[in-house]
Amino acid sequence: MRPFRFSPIKNEKELLKAITYVHFSCLKLCKQILGKYLPNAGNIGIFCHYEDEFKYLTKVREELTILSDSIYNNKYYRLLEPIVIPAKGDIPETIYTYLYIRRPDITHPDVGDVDFYLEPRQYKKLKDSIIMGKKITGAVIFDRPDLDFIKLFNPKIDVSSFVGANKFTF
């Protein structure tokens, strides 16, 4: 048995399986914690756990994205063709326009992450309620001064999600 659900990812078919898994798991996490599905911010991240995997997925990312069109310190790259995941049950169709491949980190077993979008006033209201002490199991203010997000997590689900007031769909 592999210590990580998908790693090492060795081909594009495995990458697509990981992306699909992250997508549905993050939406499940969002609904579990916030009671509803939020729209995605446009990006999806896949987390590597081995150096060879990172090198391989970086090459794949270079084939799938516009290298000159990256944001956030060259971490997120615009896809040549958006990734469209069809609706399933009550989960709406989702379109991802940016892809992130995270450097290896064997201490964090998550498969990946998705950022969700809340209109700025709604985001501020949610964030302020958490700051004021409202307990929302699985939601915390993300502790990084350079990023303004609420982190959604569940130790039983091997993905993480973030809620913010910005979209990646430019």
Helix content: 25-40%
Order of helices and strands: HEHEEEEHEEE
| CATH classification class | Alpha Beta
Mean pLDDT: 93
Largest sheet: 8 strands, mixed
Distance between the ends: 41 Å
What is the CATH homologous superfamily assignment?
2,3-Dihydroxybiphenyl 1,2-Dioxygenase, domain 1
For the secondary structure, the number of strands is 8
Global shape:
globular
CATH fold label? 2,3-Dihydroxybiphenyl 1,2-Dioxygenase, domain 1
Low-confidence stretches: none
Structure description:
This protein has one domain: Roll (2,3-Dihydroxybiphenyl 1,2-Dioxygenase, domain 1). The chain has an eight-stranded mixed beta sheet, with helices on one face. The chain has helices at 12-34, 51-64, 120-131; strands spanning 40-47, 65-71, 76-85, 94-102, 112-117, 139-141, 150-152, 160-164. The protein starts with 11 loop residues before the first helix and ends in a 6-residue tail after the last strand. It is built from three helices and eight strands; from the N terminus they run αβαββββαβββ.
Please outline the helices and strands.
Elements: H1 12-34, E1 40-47, H2 51-64, E2 65-71, E3 76-85, E4 94-102, E5 112-117, H3 120-131, E6 139-141, E7 150-152, E8 160-164
Parallel strand pairs: 1-4, 5-8
Antiparallel strand pairs: 1-5, 2-3, 3-4, 6-7, 7-8
What's the short version?
The protein has 170 residues and is α+β, with helices and mostly antiparallel strands. The protein has helices at residues 12-34, 51-64, 120-131, and strands at residues 40-47, 65-71, 76-85, 94-102, 112-117, 139-141, 150-152, 160-164. It is 29% helix and 30% strand.
